[in-house]
Specification:
0% strand, 100 residues, single chain, mainly alpha
Length: 100
């Protein structure tokens, strides 16, 4: 009986998807992963006595986080505001370089 309940619960999870595997969750996880990367870029920028966004790491990091968000499966119209809010919340907006 217990095995049947577990099997049914497993089937329901598979049928309706795992919440942790949603595009939104993947995008949020991507942002969490890049917090250290942006932090390191901020440190490198300060050590080089450059203005935020002027160190080469800023463009590379910005493109990388965008790629990760695109790969999350979330539409850009949803991940772009999510990224902007995250950058603002973390105090990293100045270290994000938009496409030229």
């Amino acid at each position: 009986m217990l095995h049947r309940r577990i099997a049914r619960a497993s089937l329901l999870l598979i049928a309706f998807g795992f919440p942790a595997c949603s595009a939104e969750s993947k995008a949020a996880s991507t942002l969490d992963d890049y917090e250290k990367v942006f932090g390191k870029c901020k440190t490198l920028t300060e050590e080089a006595k450059l203005e935020p966004g002027q160190h080469g790491c800023a463009e590379v990091t910005s493109r990388a986080v965008e790629m990760g968000l695109k790969n999350s499966g979330l539409e850009e119209s949803k991940w772009r505001p999510m990224l902007e809010a995250w950058l603002k919340d973390k105090g990293l907006t100045a270290y994000y370089v938009t496409k030229k």
